[in-house]
Write a structure and sequence with these properties.
7 strands, elongated, alpha/beta, five-stranded mixed beta sheet
C-alpha cells in the first residue's frame, strides 16, 4: 500500500498498487477525484515552484490547472519586488499539501507567454483554474493576500 495526497482536496489516501497495475484506477476517498500520475496528479511535486517556459506552458500550467489551481509567477531576475515575493511563493508551495501548484515564468526568457497574458508589470501573479485564467494580482503582495486569493480557487 502506498499513500497518495489528493491534488484536489489534500486528503491522504491509501492506494493498492497491485490493483492499479491491473488497470483499476485509484480515487480519493474524500472527494472522488482520480489519484493518477498524469499532469497535476499524484506524480507532480507541488512542494516547490515549478519553472515553466513558453514551450512547456500549455502542459505545465494550462493542462495542470484542469485538476488543481496553478499560480504562475511572472518575474525577472533583475526585479527587486520579484525577489521579495520569491521566498513567499517557496513557502506557499511547501505548504500546498497538493491543493495547488506554483509555477514560475521568467518573462525575459519567455516573451511569448508574457505577451499572451499582457504582462506589463512584474511581478504579476496569474491564477489558472479549469484551464483558464481565473485571477490576476499585480505587484508585490504579502503572503496572506496571495494565500487568501489562491485559497478562493482551491
Amino acid at each position: 500500500m502506498a499513500i497518495r495526497v489528493c491534488q484536489r482536496c489534500g486528503a491522504n489516501n491509501r492506494v493498492d498498487e497491485r490493483a492499479e497495475a491491473e488497470g483499476r484506477r485509484a480515487v480519493c476517498g474524500r472527494c472522488g477525484s482520480p489519484l493518477g500520475t498524469e499532469a497535476g496528479g499524484a506524480g507532480t511535486d507541488t512542494s516547490k515552484p515549478k519553472t515553466v517556459t513558453d514551450d512547456s506552458f500549455a502542459r505545465e500550467v494550462v493542462a495542470a490547472s484542469e485538476s488543481l489551481p496553478v499560480l504562475l509567477d511572472c518575474w525577472a531576475p533583475w526585479c527587486g519586488p520579484c525577489r521579495m515575493v520569491a521566498p513567499v511563493l517557496d513557502q506557499l508551495a511547501a505548504e500546498s499539501g497538493g491543493r495547488y501548484l506554483i509555477a514560475k515564468l521568467n518573462v525575459d526568457e519567455n516573451p511569448r507567454t508574457a505577451a499572451q497574458f499582457a504582462v506589463q508589470s512584474i511581478p504579476t501573479l496569474l491564477i489558472f483554474k479549469g484551464g483558464q485564467l481565473a485571477e490576476r494580482l499585480v505587484g508585490a503582495q504579502p503572503k496572506h493576500v496571495i494565500a487568501t486569493r489562491l485559497a478562493a480557487h482551491t
